[in-house]
C-alpha cells in the first residue's frame, strides 16, 4: 500500500514549512468534510475553520496527514506551497489539480456485496463475466485499480480466467454446495453467485485473500476486450 500512502504525502508536501495564517479568517463556506476518489480509493479531506486540514483514506485506518491550508483567489494552498493544489469551484465542488479529481460533500457510493447463494445450480454460472470491484484488506476498489479487470468464461465446471491476478488460465473446478472451487498447494479459488447478481471470485494465495466481484457481460463478447 506504499503507493496509496504516497497520495497522502503528495498533498501534504511534507518538505515545505507549515503556513502561518496570521489573523486572516478562513472561508467558512468550504470548511468541513470533502470526499473524492483517487486510484480507486475513497479519500477524505477535512478543512477546519482554524486553517488546519487532515487527509485520510478510510480503507487505511490510522494513516492520515495533517497540516495547514489557506485560500487565495479561488485556490487552496497547503503547507506554505506556492503552487495551488485545489481549485474551489463552489461550496459543494472542488477540483484536486494534481489528480484531476473532483471533491464533493457527499461520500461516493461504495459497493456492498450481497450474501452468496448456497443453492445456486451450476447452470447459472455459465457465461461471460467481468470484474467490477475488488476487495483487498477490507477496502473496496474499482476492479481496474489493479490493471485490466479480470474476466471469466464459464462453461459448466470449466472456468477460463484472464486478468492481472490470474494471468491466462483454465481450471477444471468442482461443484459443491452451490459453488465452484479449485485448489492446488497454497492457491485456491472459489466462485459463488450472490443474491444481487454478482459472481464472487475469492482468490487465496500464501495466506493472502483478494475477492473479485464480477457481472455478466453480453453473451459472445470476447474475453479481454
Name a few traits of the molecule.
single chain; about 220 residues; mainly beta; Lipocalin; 2 domains; 10-stranded antiparallel β-sheet; 8-stranded antiparallel β-sheet; 1 helix; elongated; disordered N terminus
Word description of this protein:
The protein is mainly beta and 225 residues long. It is 5% helix and 48% strand. It has one helix at 2-12, and strands at 32-38, 41-47, 52-56, 64-72, 75-78, 86-88, 93-96, 101-104, 127-136, 139-142, 151-155, 158-163, 167-172, 174-176, 179-184, 187-193, 199-205, 208-217. Strands 9, 10, 11, 12, 13, 14, 15, 16, 17 and 18 form a ten-stranded antiparallel sheet that branches. Strands 1-2-3-4-5-6-7-8 form an eight-stranded antiparallel sheet. The longest helix has 11 residues, at 2-12. It is elongated, with a radius of gyration of 22 Å. The two termini are 28 Å apart. The model is unreliable at 1-9 and 11-27 (pLDDT under 50).
